[in-house]
Design brief:
The protein has 24 helices and 26 strands. It is of the alpha+beta class. The protein has five domains: 60 residues, Orthogonal Bundle (Helix Hairpins); 230 residues, DNA ligase/mRNA capping enzyme (D-amino Acid Aminotransferase, Chain A, domain 1, 2-Layer Sandwich); 101 residues, OB fold (Dihydrolipoamide Acetyltransferase, E2P) (Beta Barrel), CATH 2.40.50.140; 148 residues, 5' to 3' exonuclease, C-terminal subdomain (DNA polymerase, domain 1); 96 residues, 3-Layer(aba) Sandwich (Rossmann fold). The strands form seven sheets. Strands 12, 13, 14, 16, 17, 19 and 20 form a seven-stranded antiparallel beta sheet that branches. It has a five-stranded mixed beta sheet with strand order 2-11-10-3-9. A four-stranded antiparallel beta sheet has the order 5-4-7-8. β16 and β17 form a beta hairpin.
């Protein structure tokens, strides 16, 4: 039994501590000293030790709760989680504004659109769920539908309220971050302990939240900003501005640097302002988010498959840095093509440490005139791919060494002979059977776009090869538990997980199977064309060169390569062995069949009508991609086209409907101009596909 006076004292302590915590972390007001607040916490802690059953779920002591977990529980989000589309230029922001106005004009008539501008904090997205005002679950974003339960770790963050000012049910979204000051202190401690340093506060914050031991998260001294109400039992605020104030009233920490912009010019002005002073804040900012202010217009604009139409993230320019090329080495790909890679003095660019950058091919090396020992300008294209953009020739000392392709590369096997591919800038191994090349083929075979064997990365493949457990593709599917347990550093759980992943991968779609075979000149797009045309693997195996030549997008070199691959005795042996273990689904597109082109309207998770209606509006259209896209990878662009029912080809012909051109487009761009094929820039492509 807990004495009434003790319970009353405890309640007062809890409420008072939470009140001062809220004043300090949410409103930046320190009405009592930290020492005084610590004294209150100490008294509360003593009462909880004496009366363990008195501990309330929103007690300040529960910020570090429980023992380290063996794993994270999966949590299905009550509201689908979205990510913002990105803009990298003024033109793209004005295009976004034009799209919003066009939609609103069609629906509501002509009127001005206001935006709320908020800072885009570089941290880890978190979703908090409260029941009757008490924190129930905190989860990572995950894949947007399912995240990881990190409640115990989130409880360690002082700025996350364990109880709200009102006993309501609500789901909110925010960003967990670490201050630059705390990152410096953490890195000094890690350096002292001989541990690797964190390159940026985001990595440190994400690493802290994804620790199974909450005490590790507590030591990181993390913080949070809440910026969105996903669901509430109360009436929704009418505007984004009011929503931020609503969150603040409930006790959440909201970033104070948000403004109402009357038009897109004011949004751009806000971005220009923060582009300059963003680096001087205590937290990292990688851009500005602009949201339509009126909630009813937000709901009307809705969502695409992955992002809201009513908001966009205007990213700051990619960071450029200088570093030195210490070496240029050749990397052997799965088809034997040699890719020159520049080794660099490690340097931090756009928040991550980079020590390598691809130089693509011999022509690119000549264009840049890059040499070993050169000082170069490095940037991340779209903040993703490390890219050497120029050489600072004025920094040369005369000791720099030009690079030229050697006559022999030992890793190519059988004498190491190499040759330049006729009509291309690429070099390749003459031998098709080198060990290095076979390893690359296996890496590709188990990868995401092929058999997608979760957990079987390059290190696992290397270990299996070195131990003699696999010598061909089919061997992967006959691995036994005892085989794997005999390998060093293979624990029972990891072995069971790997075997389960292998079992799941035994059924595969035909285009992915074709891609996995590493047939020279046959990439993912060609594999889809072949799968759709021939329907079964047997039909493809029996196809004549004439039949292959008739397929739009399959050139003479490809036809010859395909026929030669299937006719080679060794490949037949490999294929037959593989087919004893796997089952091929003959549908080339999975759910992209004509019958699936029209689906019912779905609810979007916020109670409104989803704009992600899958109408397959690109059905029958063929696209070719060239150049570098700034907002998405080429694979993402292909998936977007296929998801809308379109086809992707690797070459331009009179039957090509659109060529999508990114930065530095190649010969396909000129071919499209010659044939009169419509050329889309990235923004036009996004508008067509609905992003």
């Amino acid at each position: 039994m807990i004495p009434k006076t003790v319970q009353e004292r405890y309640n007062k302590l809890k409420e008072t501590i939470n009140r001062y915590r809220r004043l300090y972390h949410v409103y930046d007001k320190e009405e009592i000293s930290q020492a005084a607040l610590d004294s209150l916490k100490h008294e509360l802690s003593n009462l909880e030790k004496e009366y363990p059953s008195i501990i309330a779920p929103d007690s300040p002591s529960q910020r570090v709760a429980g023992e380290p977990l063996p794993f994270f529980r999966k949590v299905r989000h009550k509201v689908a989680q979205w990510s913002f589309n990105d803009a990298f230029s003024l033109e793209e922001m004005r295009e976004f504004d034009a799209r919003v106005k066009r939609f609103m004009r069609d629906s509501y008539g002509e009127f001005p659109v206001e935006y709320v501008c908020e800072l885009k904090i570089d941290g880890l997205k978190i979703v908090l769920e409260y029941e009757k005002g008490l924190l129930k679950v905190a989860a990572t974003r995950g894949d947007g539908e399912v995240g990881e339960d990190v409640t115990n770790n989130i409880r360690t963050i002082e700025s996350v309220p364990l109880s709200l000012t009102r006993p309501i049910d609500i789901v909110v979204e925010g960003e967990v971050w670490m201050s630059s000051k705390n990152l410096d202190a953490l890195n000094k401690e890690r350096e002292k302990n001989g541990e690797p340093l964190f390159a940026n506060p985001r990595n440190a914050a994400a690493g802290g939240i994804r620790q199974l031991d909450p005490s590790v998260a507590a030591k990181r001294k993390l913080d949070v900003f809440i910026y969105d109400v996903a669901k509430t039992s109360e009436k929704y605020p009418g505007t984004q501005n009011e929503e931020l104030e609503y969150l603040r009233e409930l006790g959440f920490k909201v970033n104070p640097h948000h403004v109402l912009a009357k038009n897109i010019d004011e949004v751009i002005k806000y971005w220009e302002e923060w582009k300059q002073k963003g680096r001087h804040q205590g937290y990292w900012i990688d851009g500005v988010v602009a949201k339509v202010n009126e909630k009813k217009y937000e709901q009307a604009l809705g969502y695409t498959g992955k992002a809201p139409r009513f908001a966009i993230a205007f990213k700051f320019p990619a960071e450029q840095v200088t570093t030195v090329v210490t070496d240029i080495v050749l990397q052997i790909g799965r088809t034997g093509v040699l890719t020159p890679v520049a080794h660099l003095e490690p340097v931090s660019v756009a928040g991550s440490v980079v020590s390598r950058a691809t130089l693509h091919n011999e022509d690119e090396i000549k264009r840049l005139d890059v040499r070993v020992g050169d000082t170069v300008v490095l940037q991340k294209a779209g903040d993703v791919i490390p890219d050497i953009v120029r050489v600072l020739t004025e920094m040369r000392t005369g000791k720099e060494k030009p690079f030229s392709f050697p006559k022999h590369v030992p890793a190519c096997g059988e004498g190491g002979a190499i040759e330049r591919i006729p009509g291309q800038a690429a070099w390749r191994c003459v031998s098709k059977n080198s060990y290095a090349q076979f390893k690359r083929k296996l890496y590709h075979f188990v990868g995401k776009h092929c058999f997608d064997i979760d957990g079987m990365g390059p290190k696992i493949v290397d270990a299996l090869l070195d131990s003699g457990l696999i010598a061909t593709y089919g061997d992967i599917f006959s691995l036994k538990r005892g085989d794997l347990l005999a390998l060093p550093r293979f624990a029972e759980k990891s072995v069971d997980n790997l075997l389960l992943a292998i079992e799941k991968s035994k059924t595969i779609q035909l285009p992915k199977f074709i891609t996995a075979l590493s047939i020279p000149h046959v990439g993912e797009e060609t594999a889809y064309l072949l799968a759709e045309h021939f329907k079964t693997l047997q039909e493809l195996q029996n196809a004549s060169k004439e039949q292959l030549d008739k397929i739009d997008g399959i050139g003479g070199i490809m036809s010859q390569s395909i026929q030669e691959w299937f006719s080679e005795k060794e490949n037949k042996k490999i294929l037959n062995h593989l087919l004893t273990h796997v089952k091929i689904r003959t549908s080339a597109r999975g759910d992209s069949s004509p019958a699936a082109f029209s689906e019912a309207l779905a609810k979007d998770g916020r109670g409104g009508v989803s704009s992600g209606r899958k109408i397959r509006k690109l059905f029958g259209l063929t696209f070719v991609l060239t150049g570098t896209l700034s907002k998405m990878s080429r694979e993402e662009a292909k998936e977007k086209i296929r998801a809308n029912g379109g086809d992707v080809s690797s070459s331009v012909s009179a039957r090509t409907d659109y060529v999508v051109a990114g930065e530095n487009p190649g010969s396909k761009y000129q071919e499209a101009q010659k044939l009169g094929v419509k050329i889309l820039n990235e923004a036009e492509f996004e508008a067509l596909t609905g992003r």
